Hints:
Blueprint: H1 2-24, E1 29-32, H2 34-40, H3 42-77, H4 81-135, E2 139-142, H5 156-163
Parallel strand pairs: 1-2
Amino acid sequence: MFRKLVSVLILVLFCATLCANVFAEDQKVGLINFRKAGFECKKGKTFQKEFEEKDKKAKEELDEMAKELRKLRDEADLLSDKAKAKKEEELMKKQVAFNDSRRKKSEEILRWRDDKMREITKDITDATSAYAKNNGYDMILDQMVSVYYTDKYDITDEIMKELNK
């Protein structure tokens, strides 16, 4: 217990010393809310809209297939045993096709979303780098790595202006 406490204190002191050295050298530092920039920039809003449309379309297609499956089940319940066995075989094939389609649509949407997120992340990183170089920043960090900061370090809105050009 004592070792853990000492280790944590040493780590905190090290980080404090490091931060003091960084700021003691009068370095220009900024913070960006990466998440906000990603979701509120024009490209992020367009992406959200496209994602919702793709997701809605996929759900509608799957709902239609599910209706067809329910209809087949209902029809199978009304048939004789021999006809019922044949209908249940058809139902099994449709169920497998439904499950495959659901999996494929889900994978397709996730792959598309990941590609778009990578694209937006690259755009934010490029805009942040350009902004830092053009405005003499020594370091720009994501706000997620900061425990506390004052608003004077927040440059999210400026980065978003760069992104929306």
